[in-house]
Amino acid sequence: MTSPRKSGRQPLADRMYEVLLGQFTDGRWTAGEPVNIGALSRELDVSQTPLREALARLEHTGLVRREALKGYRVAPLLTEFELVKLMDARLVLEPALAFEAARRTTPEFLDEVLKSVDDLARAATSPDTAAFSAYWTIDERFHLLIAAQADNPFLEKAYRSLGGQVQRFRFFAKLGSAGGAPGLAAEEHRVVYDALVAGEADQAATAMRRHIENAKQRVLEDRRTVEAADVPAHR
């Protein structure tokens, strides 16, 4: 008896999901922009069905929104209130993940974290705009490595559920003149790595907390700078 042939639709939808997610990471999309499925279908040479499936998955991340009778639109920038609450949620989760990861380090894990730290430092100082786009992918890899190493599926799932909202946060960070101060973030990642190498769980948690607090402060400063620049000067 032959096994039923698998449908090619789901793998293609998965691939389109990765393609679209990569476009977000590369800065292809801007906040609030409508998603033209027909144009995407022609550009990527696929039918609209797998694209709609991929967009439905992206909707769950918070990166896109579906509007009745209008289709999909890229999510708007986070408000200042949302930015604060998102970073507060990360402050609850990520120090705990770093604490647990520091108690369970392996040579392979530390090698992967070090690679992400070094890659981030190079991307942060590169004048190449493509390298700066890659910066966000590397930054995400660092945090996901630690979340996975914590060996707590509930904490990891809670962190991963923030993924799309963190991408929305990164949309804004690209708008600020400081761009989220990538050089400072790279240095903070190295401090977390050093604590992981030492197996100091409390230090790892503290270093991660400082990193998230600093990132929160930097992006809020960037936001206020951009908003101030948009307000016409009064004579």
UniProtKB/TrEMBL annotation:
Q: In this record, what's one Pfam family?
A: FCD
Sorted alphabetically, which InterPro entries does this protein's record hold? GntR_C, TF_FadR/GntR_C, Tscrpt_reg_HTH_GntR, WH-like_DNA-bd_sf, WH_DNA-bd_sf
The record's annotation in PROSITE patterns points to:
HTH_GNTR (PS50949)
Name of the protein in its database record: DNA-binding GntR family transcriptional regulator
Q: Does the keyword field hold Transcription?
A: yes
Instruction: Determine if Kinase is one of this entry's keywords.
Output: no
Q: Which SUPFAM superfamilies match?
A: GntR ligand-binding domain-like (SSF48008), Winged helix' DNA-binding domain (SSF46785)
Q: What is the species listed in this Swiss-Prot or TrEMBL entry?
A: Amycolatopsis roodepoortensis
Q: Which intervals hold domain HTH gntR-type?
A: 10-77
One MF term in GO for this entry? DNA binding
| UniProt keyword list | DNA-binding, Transcription, Transcription regulation
